Structure formats: C-alpha cells, structure tokens
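User: I'm new to structure prediction. If I give you an amino acid sequence, what do you actually give back? Let's try with this one:
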Amino acid sequence: METIEQFERMDLTLKEAREEWIRRKTKKDMLVKEQQELLDQEEKLRQEQELLDKVRLLFQRSGEYARKQAKTQLETLVTNALQYVFGSSFRFEIDLSPAEKNPTAEFYVVTKWNEETIRTKPQEARGGGVVDIISLALRIAFLETVRPRLNGPILLDEPGKHVSEDYILPMTQFLQSVHETFDRQILFVTHNIHLTESADQSFFVRLKDGKSEVHVSRLDNGIS
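Assistant: Good question. You get back a string of structure tokens that encode the predicted 3D arrangement of the chain. For your 224 residues, that looks like this:
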C-alpha cells in the first residue's frame, strides 16, 4: 500500500515537474520570440535612422549647393552690372553665414585702387549710385533666378536716381542688355531725359489746368 502511495506521489511530482517545465519553456519561447521581435524592430529602426541620416545629409548638401549656386549667379549678374556702368575695377561679393546657423548674407563691393584691393559695404562705396545699380541688378537677378519663372515686364520707379550724369548712358545700355538677354519688356518712370531717349516708346505726362495730359514722344527704339 505504501509502495503504491509512493508511486502515486512520484507520478504527481513528475507530472507537476513536467507541467512546470512546459510552463517555463513556453515562457522562454515567448521571451525569445519577443527578444527577436525587439531585435528585428531595432534593426528596422537602425535602417530607418540610417536612411533619414542619408536623406538629411543629401538635403544639407543640396541646400549648400543651391546656396552656392544662387550666390554665384547673384555675384556674377551684379558684378556685370557694376562693371557695365562703372568699369572693370568693380566686383560684387556675397558672404554667407554657415548653413547650420540662421542664414544671413552680407553684401560687399570690391574695387582696386592703385594696386590696393578695397572691400566695403555698398552704402559706403562711392555714394548712392553704386547702391542704385546693385539694387537694380539684384531685383533683376532674383526675378530671373526664381523658379518657376515669373513672366511679365520689369517695372522700375526712378531707376538710377542717384547715378551721376557720367554713368547714366552706361546704365541705359545695361538695361538694354537686360531686355535683350532675358527677353523682358522694361517699363520705368523717370525724370531723366537720357533714360527717356533710350526707350522704344516714351510717354510724357504734363499737368495742365489740374488735369494730367499724356503725350507720346516717339516709337520703336529699344526699351519702354
């Protein structure tokens, strides 16, 4: 009788041990599965992070490239304008702040005088005439470099207002070259007789008896 009870206890113990083993094995299998899922998720996140890092680097390099391209285009066009009007000793430069900071741009006029290179801010370089030409050239440059391209004429109010008489003629030639290069009509309001004479078509507005009268000066010459 005692032997039977011992066998029953042993059988029960064995059964409990088997159930505990199954329970622990099941728990282990679940933990292994969860571990593998976490490892897979970690690998997926690592790959996504790697991809994001590559995309971010691509955007950074693309941004830097675009900034450099825009800088070069603006410098070239404004330099051409300054040299067209004031001579070959002038050059326009842009200093850009590092890309990771708030982007800023500083403009400089570079000239040579007696073999010495002088670098100054536009407002400090030979009066308002230089500022007028730089402002005019920058407006045209921005208009021509923006994408998609904006169509329509260039509207100017008193262009070259501070440009001296010695440089008005080169400025009108510069406007003519802009008209021909970019195929844009240029419309401007001016009191300068040299500019009106350079236009394809001129309109004179006179005040008579409190009313404005418009007179056509002449047709077909170059810019309007």
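You can read the tokens as a compact description of the fold. Here is one thing that stands out. The radius of gyration is 38 Å.
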